[in-house]
Amino acid sequence: MNEVLQDELKKILNGRFSQSESTRANYARGEDTYDPVLSEAVVFPETNEEVSKILKLCNEHKIPVVPYGTGTSLEGNVVGIENGITISLEKMNKVLSVNAEDFDCRVQACVTKEQLNEYLREDGVFFPIDPGANAAIGGMASTSASGTMAVKYGTMKTVISGLTVVLPNGDIINTGGRTKKNFRRL
Predict the structure, then answer these.
(1) Could you say which of 58, 75, 105, 148 would form a disulfide bridge with 98 (CB–CB 3.0 to 4.6 Å)?
(2) Parts of the chain with a pLDDT under 50
(3) May I ask the CATH class of domain 95-182?
(4) 30, 78 Cβ separation under 8 angstroms
């Protein structure tokens, strides 16, 4: 990774950038059986806009990226990448809004199922997807997670009505929406 890219990332992230070996080792794999691979750096964005800026820079410098949520993946999708960076989404862990009467909510990518259910408990509703681990909603969406209650409630693709997505080129798009009539399958 060249110094220009490092400087730009540090400027965007205001100290949420690490090249220490121990940090890179912590984000080198999930719960899978694959050998860990250390990325050149780990970055910790807090907003979609920061993720967008990071991806635009990495595209410009031809640097591969790996997103990392809670690391509970069994599929190997969070294994690091040599000559690339890992984008840890752990700071994007806020429940943004809850509409219990409409059975929907908005959350950031690294909100976990347990965190969301704890938040929803007072409203008498719950998030039904249970893949076994305390996975992040973003990772569960990316793998269409299911679990013990999938027969009754469906998988992630049936409970998500919309996503805000940062594309690999850095563009931010919104899919779907709250209106059930406009519901589009992902």
Answers:
(1) 105
(2) none
(3) alpha beta
(4) yes
Q: What is the pLDDT of residues 4-25, one digit of tens each?
A: 999 999 999 999 999 999 999 9
- Single out the residue of 107, 85, 104 nearest to residue 96, CA to CA: 107
DSSP codes of every residue in the chain = --HHHHHHHHHHHTT-EE--HHHHHHTS--SSSSPP---SEEE---SHHHHHHHHHHHHHTT--EEEESSS--SSSTT---TTSEEEE-TT---EEEEEGGGTEEEE-TT-BHHHHHHHHGGGT-------SS--BHHHHHHHT---TTHHHH--HHHH--EEEEE-TTS-EEEEE-S-GGG----
Question: Where are the chain's structural domains?
Answer: 3-88, 95-182
Length of the chain: 186
Residue 3 is predicted with a pLDDT of 92
Cα distances from 112 to residues 139, 143, 168, in angstroms, run 9, 15, 23
Residue 182 pLDDT: 53
Residue pointed to by tokens 């998500």: 160
Cα 8 to Cα 5: distance, rounded to the nearest angstrom:
5
State the residue for tokens 């679990």. 147
Q: Considering the domain 3-88 in this protein, what is its CATH number? A: 3.30.43.10
